[in-house]
């Protein structure tokens, strides 16, 4: 295990490097954006809804141009990194811990003619390998939950942001309305002891010197998204033979159902969180 990886981060790394997970996200989730989508209809395809999340979250970023530098922590296959590079003409550092995802990110970025703008870096967001005050914005989608040191992740984000820089992200969170027993099936499936909450992130970001800008709640989309992925996985199960193991599919169907159940009980929260690092004269 790398000395920079906590146990839960290493667990996530091993998971996303597995053939089962790689093929699941490639064939069911689309292999481009692997996060929660924003759906405009019950039956909308996963890829379109997931891309809409990228577009809406990017709308929150201001003052970005060809000279800007964005850090995407937990960048997966790099769908958001390529979108940001193309939309703003900026450079994007795509920091991610799974080598399989990173290799596909590099290949897809080159194929899109964006390889010169997307710098894919193997590493953990608990120890970001960038200099202080070196990026104009930090971006993350549904990744920070995998850290057992979320306060350290936020501290690292604050460290690498330039004064005036922005931090926008989404993360599956707990609402604070339920007990441990209600969350236990979700936590067990993803090998975590807890989830963050909107209040935790606001409090932690403030303690690291970041200013709260907005919390835009969209929790019903989390419930819809995990339900849609579960439906799609069940519908395409036969076509995954030889690509994804039956055991993995069974576990994933159960896990996705647990997310939906916890969401319907009011135990979960999801949406857009937005923070800013004050200017030096603030």
Task: Describe, in plain words, how this protein is organized in 3D.
- By secondary structure, the protein is α/β, with parallel strands linked by helices.
- It has a single domain (7-276), classed as Rossmann fold, CATH 3.40.50.150.
- 44% of the residues lie in helices and 18% in strands.
- The chain has helices spanning 7-17, 19-27, 46-58, 79-88, 99-111, 150-160, 180-189, 198-207, 219-235, 246-264; strands at residues 69-73, 91-96, 118-122, 135-141, 161-170, 173-174, 211-217, 268-269, 271-276.
- The strands form 2 sheets. Strands 3-2-1-4-5-9-7 form a 7-stranded mixed β-sheet, sandwiched between helices.
- The longest helix is centred in the last third of the chain and has 19 residues, at 246-264.
- The protein is globular.
Descriptors for this entry?
282 residues; globular; Rossmann fold; 9 strands; alpha/beta
Counting DSSP E segments of at least 2 residues, the number of strands comes to 9
Give the overall shape, derived from the CA principal axes.
globular
Q: Tell me what portion of residues adopts beta-strand conformation.
A: 15-25%
The fold-level CATH name is Rossmann fold
CATH class: Alpha Beta
Radius of gyration: 18 Å
Q: How many helical stretches?
A: 10
| Run of helices and strands | HHHEHEHEEHEEHHEHHEE
């Amino acid at each position: 295990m790398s000395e920079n990886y906590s146990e839960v981060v290493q667990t996530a790394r091993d998971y996303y490097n597995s053939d089962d997970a790689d093929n699941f996200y490639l064939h069911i989730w689309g292999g481009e954006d692997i996060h929660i989508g924003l759906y405009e209809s019950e039956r909308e395809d996963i890829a379109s809804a997931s891309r809409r999340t990228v577009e809406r979250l990017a709308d929150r970023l201001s003052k970005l141009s060809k000279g800007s530098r964005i850090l995407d922590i937990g960048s997966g296959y790099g769908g958001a990194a390529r979108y940001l590079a193309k939309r703003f003409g900026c450079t994007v550092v795509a920091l991610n811990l799974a080598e399989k995802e990173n290799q596909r990110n590099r290949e897809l970025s080159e194929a899109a003619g964006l390889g010169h703008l997307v710098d894919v870096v193997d590493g953990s967001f608990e120890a970001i390998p960038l200099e202080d005050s070196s990026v104009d914005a930090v971006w993350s989608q549904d990744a920070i939950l995998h850290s057992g040191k979320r306060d350290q992740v936020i501290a690292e984000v604050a460290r690498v942001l330039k004064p005036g820089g922005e931090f926008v992200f989404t993360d599956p969170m707990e609402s604070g309305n339920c007990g441990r027993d209600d969350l236990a099936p979700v936590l067990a499936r993803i090998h975590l002891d807890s989830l963050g909450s909107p209040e935790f992130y606001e409090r932690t970001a403030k303690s690291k010197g970041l200013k709260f800008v907005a919390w835009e709640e969209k929790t019903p989309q989390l419930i819809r998204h995990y339900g849609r992925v579960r439906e799609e996985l069940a519908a395409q199960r036969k076509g995954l033979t030889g690509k994804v193991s039956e055991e993995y599919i069974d576990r994933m169907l159960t896990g996705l159902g647990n997310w939906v159940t916890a969401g319907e009980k009011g135990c979960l929260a999801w949406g857009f969180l937005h923070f800013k690092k004050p200017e030096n004269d603030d």
